[in-house]
Amino acid sequence: MTSANAATYRDAVAHLPPDGTLILNGVTWDEYESLAEHLGDHSPVRITYDQGRLEVMSPSTKHEKYSDMVTYMLRALAGKLGRPLESFGRATFKQQWLDRGVEPDACFYVENAASVATTEEIDLAKDPPPDIAVEIDISHGSTTKFGIYAGMRVPEVWRYDGRHAQMHIYHLAEQGYVEMTNSLAFPILTADTLSEFLAQSKAKGQTTALESFADWMRKSGIRKRSRTR
């Protein structure tokens, strides 16, 4: 990355407002990696790189609260079911051989949880992709990332449409992602169920919504799976 490009990109990112999006074209892989390294793991912005197209999004507090709520619900459900769950938050997934990189708003390993339980940094050259990637859309759309997730072979993507207060669940198929009603990893979870409790968290707060979610799990008769001997 030239010093001129570096200064331009960093300055533009620094001035992004909450829920603002910056799109740059003609960015090289080295420039993408340099910017990501400069921002570091603790930067709140999300960076997506797709064969020269760089998209940087600055999430708002509202955006973060929705992704946190999804994580809280999945942890509670996995605990109730006795299923392993590894959360990697907004980890960066890079595919240099495909010239792509993405940071979901949240991601989870379920079927492959055991294989990454002690992994500190995911390397898609040797590690499996997450079983679930979550995108929260408040003022921008995330469907442009679906091609990247498909290339990673992520089995399902959850996309929360904040404008219409609706969660959408997509399963990976041969032709790309297809919208479905239920989760693959957690079949008892539907898009409407997730939408309901996310709406509750907005109207009544996360604590009340999580209490309602716990009550829903009890009424649904959710129990831990019996272990095969």
CATH class of the largest domain: Alpha Beta
Q: Cα-atom Rg, whole angstroms?
A: 18 Å
The structure class reads alpha+beta
Order of neighbouring strands in the sheet with most strands: 4-7-8-9-10-11
Tell me, briefly, the overall form.
globular
Mean pLDDT: 89
**CATH fold name of the largest domain:** tt1808, chain A
Which residues sit in consecutive blocks of at least 5 with pLDDT less than 50?
Answer: none
* Main sheet record: 6 strands, mixed
Helix content: 25-40%
Strand content: 15-25%
Reading the helices and strands in chain order gives: HEHEEHEEEEHEHEEEHH
Architecture per CATH nomenclature, i.e. the level-2 architecture of the largest domain: Alpha-Beta Complex
Number of domains: 2
Q: How many beta strands in the DSSP annotation?
A: 11
SS field, number of helical segments: 7
CATH homologous superfamily heading of the largest domain: tt1808, chain A
Describe the protein in words:
- The protein is α+β, with helices and mostly antiparallel strands and 229 residues long.
- The protein folds into 2 domains: 1-58; 60-219, Alpha-Beta Complex (tt1808, chain A), CATH 3.90.1570.10.
- 36% of the residues lie in helices and 23% in strands.
- A 6-stranded mixed beta sheet has the order 4-7-8-9-10-11. The chain has a 5-stranded antiparallel beta sheet with strand order 1-3-2-6-5, sandwiched between helices.
- It is globular and about 55 Å long.
- The termini are far apart.
